[in-house]
Design goal:
Number of strands: 4
Structural class: mainly alpha
Oligomer: single chain
Strand order of the largest sheet: 1-4
């Protein structure tokens, strides 16, 4: 039986809340205010640094963006989508049949992302995004002969190499550019089709996160998260950047792993006859899900070097499920992708080594880590929104108890909210790596989807005000700035 939406107004619900609830809600507001102050500080201090010595290499710190107030053909659609999700999103998320909810969430996320992208117009917002001098489509013809292109891929990474790759091609393993080569080969070449691919596939991450949440936590929390996954400020960068597509591949890898790890086992009849005894075996479909998860995990690592960090979330999934049975097939699937690229002539480790060399010979060599280690967190606030900051506050408050319950010796596993807490904590670890300086508003999209899930912990009666804050932030970002991705 699906949960029924409340008709209680937020103000009335707040009056009826107990002292602990009221204190928690005040703490949520303070956390969101702290997030706003972090963004203001990053913008103010970043502007001072950039005007002083230009070392940040961004026009509107902390974002890779320019100040550009504008309206566009997508503006009315964006306002309409926001209004519809605010009005009908929470009750529909509570009442729709599960499969219908997944499709509705994907469709609504796609509508939100398309409308935001079209604020900049069809050409600027979509068709030309992936055709600039830094992007993948500029080198499609150099992959007419795949064998030599892959064998010689690492030889074009450094800036001083002959015919060096553009920034985004050099900055990723070849699966990224091969995606667009493949689209070109089947007749879907050019920037328009590339943009359609990134938005269509990228927004499916919302459905993938719901699948994982239902498997690892429970359906109630997944349904509560759904409207926040739709009205994500991250949609500004999902449409259109290849990182949105990478995020979806990573999200489906984790969703399939969650399904594989949580499928109920069935008794295996003992040798010599049937009966209630015997060993246990995986439920039908669990093996296929684990292998598919591994293949997508391997693809994820060959789409972006930094997305090897998604392994942290995969470990969290297995810990939460208390089930290592999918691990062999997961590893086998990922290894299949790695072996295929290695046999084709691409050395992942050599590519990563050369990328680091190029990275630190360029802007990263002068971008100050002392700024970006916290400036990146301001970017995370902007792509996930104030509601996520409030949700993450609740995650951090619940973290000690949830982590203690992870130990098998601690008794029963964490409750659904505790399991969601552990999953969000795994996504939070990305900033500590130092793998990225700046531009994390797109690079961290694969982790942003899982941070958004923390919004499910917010009081249901206040979902609409928090959703409104999310929508307003996304609309302001898209209408006041030109993000460049």
């Amino acid at each position: 039986m699906t949960p029924r939406p409340t008709s209680e107004a937020p103000a009335a619900a707040a009056r009826r809340a107990g002292p602990e609830d009221r204190a928690a809600r005040r703490a949520d507001l303070l956390a969101a205010a702290a997030g706003l102050l972090l963004v203001v500080a990053a913008a103010a201090i970043g502007t001072v640094i950039e005007r002083a010595n230009g070392s940040l290499h961004v026009n509107w710190p902390p974002l890779y963006a320019s100040w550009f107030p504008h309206l566009g053909p997508g503006t009315p659609a964006a306002l309409a989508v926001a209004a519809l999700v605010l009005g009908y999103g929470p009750p529909l998320a509570a009442r729709l049949p599960w499969r219908a909810l997944l499709l509705a969430c994907w469709a609504a996320a796609m509508a939100w992302t398309w409308s935001l992208a079209l604020v900049d117009g069809w050409q600027t917002g979509i068709a030309r995004r992936l055709t600039t001098e830094y992007e993948y489509l500029t080198v499609i013809r150099r992959f007419d002969d795949l064998g030599p292109a892959l064998r010689g891929f690492t030889g074009h990474i450094l800036n001083n190499a002959p015919d060096h790759w553009p920034a985004h091609v050099a900055g990723h393993p070849p699966a990224a550019v091969l995606t667009f080569v493949g689209l070109d080969r089947i007749g879907l070449g050019g920037g328009a089709w590339a943009g359609v691919w990134c938005i269509t596939v990228g927004t499916s991450a919302a459905a993938a996160v719901l699948v994982a949440l239902r498997a690892l936590a429970d359906e109630r929390l997944a349904r509560r998260a759904a409207p926040f996954l739709v009205l994500a400020p991250a949609a500004v960068w999902v449409g259109t950047s290849a990182d949105g597509y990478f995020a979806a591949v990573a999200a489906w890898s984790l969703a399939l792993l969650a399904l594989a790890a949580t499928r109920r086992a069935r008794p295996r009849p003992p040798l010599g006859g049937g009966g209630p005894g015997g060993s246990r075996r995986s439920a039908p479909g669990a093996a296929a899900a684990a292998l598919a998860s591994g293949l997508l995990l391997g693809l994820t690592c060959y789409l972006s070097y930094g997305l090897t960090l998604i392994v942290l979330l995969a470990v969290a999934v297995l810990l939460l499920a208390r089930n290592a049975r999918p691990l062999p097939l997961l590893v086998a699937g990922a290894a299949t992708v790695a072996v295929a690229f290695t046999l084709a002539g691409f050395d992942w480790w050599e590519g990563y080594r050369l990328l680091v060399e190029r990275y630190y010979h360029g802007a990263a060599g002068v971008r100050p880590y002392a700024y970006w280690v916290w400036g990146n967190l301001a970017c995370a606030v902007l792509i996930t929104g104030p509601a996520t900051v409030a949700g993450v506050r609740r995650v951090l408050a619940a973290a000690p108890a949830a982590l203690r319950r992870l130990r098998p010796s601690a008794g029963p596993p964490p409750d659904p909210a505790g399991r969601l807490t552990v999953l969000v904590l795994a996504a939070l670890l990305a900033d500590l790596s130092g793998m990225s300086k700046a531009e994390t508003e797109r690079i961290w999209l694969p982790f942003a989807w899982w941070l958004l899930a923390a919004c499910a912990l917010l009081p249901r009666a206040l979902h609409r005000p928090w959703l409104a804050a999310q929508a307003v932030l996304a609309l302001l970002l898209n209408h006041l700035l030109y993000t460049g991705w």
